[in-house]
């Protein structure tokens, strides 16, 4: 019976918030004569608030506090009722980023977002003393946000490792350390041993050759292929100022490249 009451209360709150959004949208139509700079500042402020709330949603501290709140509310439901009341301040605290996001959506961005639903459920369950449901919903929210952030971090590390390993592999396959290279000296190309090449030298690479070093193009334009493990291989046009990496194959053209890293 209490759960039904919570659902009804949450539904009424949700309907009220949705109506409020519609009313504010109608009023917003009359504000379109505002100065562009004020509108830009308003949007920037709303985006900043939303970004801060999102950053806190991925904070491990909030996930840990949500876990403690869930434990207390569960213990209050099964063992000792006052523990459920102890969980309420924690539930409210970990809900603050959600409330801020919902407030930004309602009163600044004036659009409907899932944070409004989340805030409605938390308020409805707390108002009807369903502390376990409120803390459980928060726990799932922070668990998913924390897990997603960990997956993104793992993906970044894995991508970096793959690119590094693949670059080394391609360097071996294409012989990125030739015996000799052509270096521009006083406007004249001079062939020197690769071991004598130094950072800052300008080498000449022509069609059919592979770039042996990491550098920056100082002269010439060429069509190249850069082999990347996480991207499709396709021809690219390189111009002066662009950077090149080892194992870059020159399909057509000619480039003078200043050595940045051997």
From TrEMBL:
Family: Belongs to the cation transport ATPase (P-type) (TC 3.A.3) family. Type IB subfamily.
Domain P-type ATPase A residue range list: 177-261
GO molecular function, one term: transmembrane transporter activity
Identification of the protein by name: P-type ATPase A domain-containing protein
Gene3D superfamilies, A to Z: Calcium-transporting ATPase, cytoplasmic transduction domain A (2.70.150.10)
Any one cellular-component term (Gene Ontology): membrane
